[in-house]
Input
Amino acid sequence: MLRMLKVEIKRAFINRLFLVSLIIGCIISILQVVERALPYASGIDLYPNQYPPSLYNSCIGLSFSMWSSIFYFVFPLLAAIPYADSFLTDKKSGYLENIYTRGKKINYLISKFVAVFLSSGCVVLLPLLLNILLTALCVPAVIPDASTGFFPIFGYATWANIYYSTPIVYVLLFQILMFITAGILSCSALLFSFVVKYKYIVLITPFLLFIAITYGSMLFPQGNSFNISEWINPMQSIQALNLWAVGIELLIILSISIGIYLYVGCKRDTI
Output
């Protein structure tokens, strides 16, 4: 099991598509710094009447930025590119049949699931961490002060007390949520690998699921807690998040994905 897991993780992280996706994410992250933080470092004060700019209202996710919006919109695609279609690729190449005849199916299936989850989470987390570091080089890490009215988190928002006391913890909490969400969405693509023959359709599955949940949640009162775009973005809407709802939704998506994936994968004698 451990040997298979090591092989799958190596295949997930050491491949061209992981690098491509990571580079795209980092470019978006850097462009957000150029748009929002670099002018301040260059002596250009874009908001002269505001409280002195801070890392915590200038970084990605906590500032009004076109590139920030782009990143949080395309992240399911970035997460899926590295390895979400690998099951289908293994099936088409004959690698899967070879693995199934030489070892236990369950070991391969679990290792594949873990590798997809970790690679997808990391490929979106690393650009976010890069953005924090680069923004910190340009803008001072001034502790947010709610009385100024120039920070994006309202007092009733989820974890607002953490934001105004230890803001770096607040940022990291949302980045952990992003990591988990990206991993789970990408793993949903594994289900479609059993029935879909085209890799590009498999790769776009996490994005389509993201869009469906995002817009579907708008049909319900208090639907923001079920809206993926709300809980991954530190700049929350006017409604506080229900963390129980967030956790339950993630657990449901994860359970359905891994349950059907393992059941079908173990049951099939031929792929």
Observations:
- Residues 2-267 form one domain.
- The mean pLDDT is 87.
